[in-house]
């Protein structure tokens, strides 16, 4: 099914989005959409037992629920999410129209807009960010993304993450939308289709992408690409993904020099875009106002069969929301060779940067990951968070001869056997043992 791109309905705005401090994102565009509102967020009635500070919201497509939740008013509190009824139960030929582009790859992000236009026109009219990045096929709690409950369950990726360890003293960090939530019934899983995408991911050239809609903080709902996400999980790699982020609210922020001068900006998840850069587009006074409905939240229907154990286990390979918060806390972008050499020359001084770098390098499947992890794991004899995280990275590189030599040397160098009391050293030893497990 082919659909023409309506240049009046979806326009690329000539705005350069600042990606500094956004290592998760490779490219982003600002779009103005004149939409129908068929794909929208609605407020729903809260049950009497719900927390007073929660709001009930439901993402619907032509009236069919795709995701529901009780969303916390406080950003340090987790929201509770539950599934919808499945995209296959909604009328959405627009997704069929864009699969060729998502599967075939593209040279530039703007090349995807004509194919995405029919789907984007289902949104409410307004300004959106379209981001091209990697996403993890996990819920941010170490669980495969499709293995979620049809009932309300707390989700760590929907709140600021509190870091409290030997490098941080109760830092609250905002995680970008790198985690995924499903929108398809489990019974639609086709392992032959998963195997096809496994082969595609291992070939040269452009990679297949998924497409997702931003939910909040670190979470997006996957609209298309469940089999691609499953294939990525089995390969232990992230899923290339296009994510659409709505305008959530406005903020006043100081100009670069004088803090007494302020300018208004729009916030699209982790992106902040000055209003003056939006090409004079009329903006809503209250973008957080949603379509109101008096109906209660619907019960989910996605968990209609069991998932293979191989997929369930694959979800545990990825960083949790807490792990990814290390990137935000370190305030790093994608590390250059010079960055890594500077940090590794004095790891005691640059521990936060190296901890964040391990997450980013692992995320991108960067060839520098092993060497960086080996050098971090060899830092001193003292137990520290950096050493633990480096050991965890190395333990995943099963069969690697250099890593095996490192762990053998580690055991040879132990002055005494692990204690039965569960010391910090014992924890490192358990991680090292898992390399052969």
Distance between the termini: 49 Å
Specify the biggest β-sheet: 7 strands, mixed
Characterize the quaternary organization of these chains. Answer: single chain
Strand content: 25-35%
Model regions low in confidence, pLDDT < 50 over at least 5 residues:
none
Number of helices: 12
Envelope shape: globular
| Arithmetic mean pLDDT | 90
Q: Strand tally, please?
A: 18
Query: How are helices and strands ordered from N to C?
Result: EEEEEEHHEEEEEHEEHEEEEEHHHHHHHH
- How much helicity do the residues have? 25-40%
Condensed summary:
The protein has helices at residues 93-104, 113-120, 191-201, 226-235, 309-314, 321-330, 337-345, 351-364, 369-377, 385-395, 401-413, 424-433, and strands at residues 10-13, 25-33, 39-45, 54-61, 64-72, 79-83, 126-135, 153-155, 161-164, 169-173, 179-181, 210-216, 219-224, 239-246, 249-254, 262-268, 271-274, 291-296. It is of the alpha+beta class and 437 residues long.
